[in-house]
């Protein structure tokens, strides 16, 4: 039996396991899809169904706990930021920083890369071109498009807030 066929046979069990450890059905479905994708790209997956079943369950479990850790870190970060703001009311409003960070995280990876290298790390265009293995002119056009995309995301979120507050 082919590897893909074996995974297809395991799908009901994988879904049942994911449903048992997730709070939301959508999260469980996403978890199964991510696990199958990871399994299909694995270098040497188990060849026997009896070994494949626990291996797939372990992938689902690890992906689930990785996501839980990410959510915990985000909650702790936001709680710390709020606590700092509450403790020191004279500190500048960090909501703009958070808005920029969320907008940045929502950009595609290649767009984030050029922004990170140029605007965050402070590399020169020539240095970024070497890192990215592209011509310097390409870096210049990518950073221009990336900055524009970031600004549009920020302004779009700000405009949505303005519309919501206007309706109140």
UniProtKB/TrEMBL annotation:
Alphabetized Pfam families for the sequence: Sigma70_r2, Sigma70_r4_2
Keyword Metal-binding: no
Signal sequence annotation: none
Domain RNA polymerase sigma-70 region: 8-70
UniProt key word Transcription: yes
Domain RNA polymerase sigma factor 70 region 4 type intervals: 100-150
Family: Belongs to the sigma-70 factor family. ECF subfamily.
Protein name: RNA polymerase sigma factor
